[in-house]
Amino acid sequence: AETKRIAILGGDGIGPEVVAEAEKVLKKTEELFGVQFETEHALFGGVAIDQKGTPLPEETLELCKSADAVLLGAVGGPKWDNNPKELRPETGLLGIRKQLGLFSNIRPAVIFDCLKEASTLKPEVLEGTDLIVVRELTGGIYFGEKFRRDTENGQEAVDTCAYNEKEVERIVRQACEVARKRRKKLTSVDKANVLETSRLWRETVNRIAADYQDVELEHVLVDNCAMQLLRRPASFDVIVTENMFGDILSDEAAMLTGSIGMLASASLGEGSLGLYEPVHGSAPDIAGQGVANPIATILSVALMYKLSFNWQEAGDVIENAVKKVLDAGHRTADIAVDKSKAVGTSKMGDLIVEAM
Amino acid sequence: AETKRIAILGGDGIGPEVVAEAEKVLKKTEELFGVQFETEHALFGGVAIDQKGTPLPEETLELCKSADAVLLGAVGGPKWDNNPKELRPETGLLGIRKQLGLFSNIRPAVIFDCLKEASTLKPEVLEGTDLIVVRELTGGIYFGEKFRRDTENGQEAVDTCAYNEKEVERIVRQACEVARKRRKKLTSVDKANVLETSRLWRETVNRIAADYQDVELEHVLVDNCAMQLLRRPASFDVIVTENMFGDILSDEAAMLTGSIGMLASASLGEGSLGLYEPVHGSAPDIAGQGVANPIATILSVALMYKLSFNWQEAGDVIENAVKKVLDAGHRTADIAVDKSKAVGTSKMGDLIVEAM
Ligand SMILES: CC(C)[C@H](C(=O)O)[C@@H](O)C(=O)O
Ligand SMILES: CC(C)[C@H](C(=O)O)[C@@H](O)C(=O)O
């Protein structure tokens, strides 16, 4: 196999710290399997604003385009929160998704046995929860026309939410494929009783799902889904939804697992190029202290192997190593019951590498 | 005091059943306080579609406009789910909100002591939860221009989300007033890192909140709010947000209380006219069986007394009666631990009337 190129974007806050541990895992993979990765770092997010005057510098984008996969830490922080739009880290994130054509965001929400107690939900409700939110990532109200105008009622702001059939088709087809490899249940979430985009969404889902007779389909309204996630999380398998609803529901789903420091995500397009990042944010409050949990980022590497490199085996090695380390009782502060026994970021990375 | 006129819209499913119990409470109020209400029933929702060919007949709208308050059961059901837009119950709901200028939806999410166990959240997390979602109800993507057009990528659907300063001002001012009478904490929810309407929202909130120095203000992004509701529900007092986010978050908040059959809501405008309805839906699966829980609708009457009639005392009488009946151990099936001991809709109404 040819050498895989991995673009590494540490980003802001705890981003560089957790990514450093993921890089140890990349190295260990090279040793274990006798492969070689070509890794290259680039500036992205707040740090890129500070050093280059833009959250997504041209050279970063070029690097990512030429890579086989992108590993991202996290971006953002209070320092840039009041900047104008072009100088905000999030703008870089939206830009990279759009420029790389990453229309699909895959966010597994799973329960780690040892962390069941960390959830605010009752363990008996969580039991068996293992779902994936497939979120459309390059359309909808995120990318529609936005503007302001003056009216007799003061300024008016406008956002436009648009979806065309092709955009819906490709994400739904992907969700069907994901469901087919799992428990074969697809929940499509929309607000078809109010939104025209949702009505087109639902029609398209019905049309595409007809090609997947083995996948059971249900339509749930977004407000109801926000409730059902709390009431019967284990009943969901794959949830597919549009960009804004997916943003909200995937975070709700992540939080209810109680394992937000442990959840990985993948953003995919038509080809094999993918962007992999932890679900958690840049946590500026604990940045630089060496206490952040690197597991979500390390598990993002496992997702990268599986989804971009089609390399199940190496992904499993990482996932099993994480499991072993947790089963042995090692915890970072965010998931430790007894905080005084918590290990730091770097130690957790080392433990996982050892266990690989 | 002049005679108050109350328009009564039973609607669909369990709507007429629960409203009938609320009417017993109205009668009992007349007896207790020597007042008289003028009540009038009208068709609304699916039943209006069936009988009049429209979910919101002109005479229903006129009745509501001339009333001091509107009491609504619930609308909707599978029978009308595949109808074209003009023939859907929800269209009537959106119409009545807009036509009556009910720009503010107030949804308290409280924990009933005896129902703490009904929540899927751990009791220690729920402890002390008592929040109100103030949702903007006549603007945003619900009411913006919607259309389809043909593109090279198939049909495209478009929804428009718009807010002007006046719309944001009035709802934020109302939320500040509500907060001022409570724990003086306001959480404004938006997606200011992505949406132009949210940026206008946030600017306007900051401007209006300056008039309420005694109210503590925080801004939370909608995805984060969906998480924080699960993690620290008791830390919220008043949440104010736009229409679509409010739809999702108020349902999430309602569900986490575990008391969805018990939650009342009010929709208000500039004057004292308000529309009162239970948070739960029309529950077609149990309609006509006499088992529905009428408490949310009965508590909606209490809200009506307080918010539209400025009649705290009579509202308290109802709320205390409900508390007494629950404390005595009476339960409808939805909230009963031992379903075989559950009382029916009508019996629950009678018990509450007796306790008043
Ligand atoms: C930072 C923000 C723009 C982003 C989004 O809303 O997509 C984030 O919340 C996410 O989910 O990745
Ligand atoms: C029925 C529907 C149009 C409505 C809404 O979305 O506003 C409902 O969900 C609600 O919250 O009252």
TrEMBL record, chains A, B:
For molecular function, the Gene Ontology terms on record are:
3-isopropylmalate dehydrogenase activity
User: Oxidoreductase among the record's keywords?
Assistant: yes
Task: State the UniProt keywords alphabetically.
Answer: Amino-acid biosynthesis, Branched-chain amino acid biosynthesis, Cytoplasm, Leucine biosynthesis, Magnesium, Manganese, Metal-binding, NAD, Oxidoreductase
Listed binding positions for NAD(+) are: 77-90, 281-293
The UniProt entry, under PROSITE patterns, shows:
IDH_IMDH (PS00470)
Q: Does the keyword rRNA-binding apply?
A: no
The protein's enzyme class: oxidoreductase
Q: Which Enzyme Commission number(s) are listed?
A: 1.1.1.85
Regions crossing the membrane: none
Which pathway does it serve?
Answer: Amino-acid biosynthesis; L-leucine biosynthesis; L-leucine from 3-methyl-2-oxobutanoate: step 3/4
Location in or out of the cell:
Cytoplasm
How is the cofactor bound, as the UniProt entry phrases it?
Answer: Binds 1 Mg(2+) or Mn(2+) ion per subunit.
Q: Which residues bind substrate?
A: 97, 107, 135, 223
Q: What positions does the domain Isopropylmalate dehydrogenase-like occupy?
A: 5-352
Amino acids binding Mg(2+) = 223, 247, 251
> Site Important for catalysis: which residues?
142, 191
What does the subunit comment say?
Homodimer.
Member of which family?
Belongs to the isocitrate and isopropylmalate dehydrogenases family. LeuB type 1 subfamily.
Q: What is the stated purpose of this protein?
A: Catalyzes the oxidation of 3-carboxy-2-hydroxy-4-methylpentanoate (3-isopropylmalate) to 3-carboxy-4-methyl-2-oxopentanoate. The product decarboxylates to 4-methyl-2 oxopentanoate.
- Name of this chain's protein: 3-isopropylmalate dehydrogenase
